[in-house]
Amino acid sequence: MAVYSHMTMSLDGYIADPEDGIGELFGWYGAGDVTVPSANEHIAFQVDADSAVLLRGVLAGAGALVCGRRLFDLTDGWGDDHPIGAPVVVVTHNPPADTAKWPRTTFAGGVAEGIARAKEIAGEKDVSIASADIARQALDLGLVDEVVVSLVPVLLGAGIPYFAGLTGAPHRFDDPVVIQGSRATHLRYRVRR
User: Beta 88-91 vs 105-108: how paired, if at all?
Assistant: First the structure.
C-alpha cells in the first residue's frame, strides 16, 4: 500500500489553466488506440500502449482517493462514481449539507485525518491524492510515498501549480521511473525518507 499523488502537468508546472481548464493537459487521455475502461461505465480512456500500462496500474491498485472540496464541487462529486473506482475522501472544513447524496464519500476536517481515513478505507490497496493543495500539504506532512507526474508538452504560462507554497521543502526523491507515452511522459518518483 502506498500513498501517492498523480497529476497531469504542463512543462511549466501547472495542473490547470487560470479558469480551471484542463483541455490542453488531458489530451493524452484520448491520444491512442488502446481502450482502458474506467470503473465508471460512461468513461473510458483511449491512450497509447505505454500509457495504458500506467492507467491500468492506477485503476487496479486504487483503494481510496483523496481530494479537496474545490475539486469535489467542480465535479459534483463525480456523481459518487469516480472513474478510479474507489471511495473518495474529501478534505474540507465545510462539508456539504447533503452528504447523504454521496454514500461512497467521506468528509474529513484536515489533511492528516483525510489520509488516515483513506488508508483505513483502502486496506491493502493504494491511496491516490487528486488535489494539488492536498498533495502539497500531505507532502509537507511526510504522508506521501510517491509523486507521479504525467508531463505534457505545453506551456500554460499561468494557472494552478502542482506544488506551490511548500513549507517543508526541499523534498527529495529517488530517480524517476519513466514511461514514455504519446502526448505525455509519465514520471514516477519515490519520496526519500
Answer: parallel
Distance between CA atoms of residues 124 and 166, nearest Å: 29
The amino acid present at 77, given as its one-letter code, is: G
Contact between residue 139 and residue 76 where contact means Cβ atoms under 8 Å apart: no
Compute the distance between CA of residue 75 and CA of residue 108 in angstroms, rounded to an integer: 18
Query: What is the C-alpha separation between 1 and 32, in angstroms, rounded?
Result: 30
- For residue 32, report the phi and psi dihedrals to the nearest 5 degrees: -150, -175
Q: Which amino acid is at 30?
A: G
How far is Cα 34 from Cα 48, in angstroms, rounded to an integer? Answer: 6
3-class SS at 114?
Answer: helix
In this predicted structure, the answer to whether residue 68 has a pLDDT above a threshold of 90 is yes
> Residue 14 in contact with residue 158, Cβ under 8 Å?
yes
Q: Are 54 and 96 in contact (CB under 8 A)?
A: no
Other CB atoms within 10 Å distance of the CB of residue 158: 9
Helix, strand, coil percent values for the chain (each to nearest 5): 25, 30, 40
pTM > 0.90: yes or no = yes
Q: Cα(first)–Cα(last) distance of the chain, in Å? A: 16
Assess contact for 19 and 158: CB atoms under 8 A: no
Q: What is the pLDDT of residues 69-86, one digit of tens each?
A: 999 998 898 888 888 889
CA 191 – CA 56 distance, rounded (Å) = 22
